[in-house]
User: Which sequence fits this backbone?
């Protein structure tokens, strides 16, 4: 089970007592330490470039991952900015044992979200998301639209304005009806492909990348 966006002391013990393996999603070193103290088996270490709910004080995967790796001795799944074998190799170099893809999977062929959202991810440049930081409630990273740009300028936006219209966004493809959670990595996603292809290509590229690094940097 992965738990996220809350206090790890709340459910970890009960889940562990039920015989489950528990990973908690963390956006900072402090949160990571708290989760480990609560007894989790591992961490999903997620940088602020990722899509979805975020810490108001976002830290990039590049900074957060090696920091947590250095201080804590539990298995780590990296998240935020990963969509292929190159980014997976980078995450492994920074200390992860696994990776989690959000935006890449949301825009896969099998994903149940509306085509309009998938196409908007494919069309998005690397600057195509905004970070919404309402005064009350968690921050969110979402696709840049007229609505999300307006909400970005209005920090006192009520949480319901962010959550409102979510069904119309997900299943009717009206991206102005709410916010379409997505990460900066949308800028690197160029096609809607089946999940099996994403995974096969990622594993192949990961091996090619590690081999090329070893060849270019270790051969005497
Ligand atoms: C549409 C969408 C919905 C998400 N919902 C959740 C959620 O309910 N709980 C959660 O822990 N993470 C959620 N996430 C975050 C992902 O699980 C993942 O960690 C994140 O997207 C990784 O960053 P990436 O988008 O750069 O791949 C969501 C992400 C997206 C894009």
Assistant:
């Amino acid at each position: 089970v992965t738990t996220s966006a809350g206090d790890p002391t709340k459910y970890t013990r009960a889940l562990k007592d039920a015989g489950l393996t528990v990973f908690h999603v963390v956006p900072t070193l402090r949160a990571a330490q708290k989760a480990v103290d609560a007894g989790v088996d591992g961490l999903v270490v997620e940088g602020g470039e990722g899509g979805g709910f975020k810490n108001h004080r976002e830290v990039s995967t590049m900074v957060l991952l090696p920091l947590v790796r250095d201080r804590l001795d539990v298995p780590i799944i990296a998240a935020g900015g990963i969509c292929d074998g190159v980014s997976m190799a980078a995450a492994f170099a920074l200390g992860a044992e696994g990776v989690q893809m959000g935006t890449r999977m949301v825009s896969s062929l099998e994903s149940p979200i509306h085509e309009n959202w998938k196409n908007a991810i494919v069309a998005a440049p690397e600057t195509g998301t905004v970070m919404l930081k309402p005064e009350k409630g968690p921050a969110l990273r979402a696709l840049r639209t007229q609505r999300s740009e307006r909400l970005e300028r209005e920090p006192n936006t009520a949480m319901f304005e962010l959550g409102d219209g979510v069904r119309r966004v997900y299943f009717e493809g009206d991206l102005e009806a709410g916010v379409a959670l997505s990460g900066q990595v949308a800028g690197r996603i160029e096609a809607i492909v089946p999940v099996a292809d994403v995974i096969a290509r990622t594993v192949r590229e990961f091996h090619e990348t590690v081999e090329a690094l070893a060849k270019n940097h270790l051969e005497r």
About this structure: The first strand starts at residue 2 and ends at 3. The pocket of flavin mononucleotide is lined by residues 4-5, 25, 46, 49-52, 79-82, 100-104, 106, 181-183, 185 (CB under 6 Å).
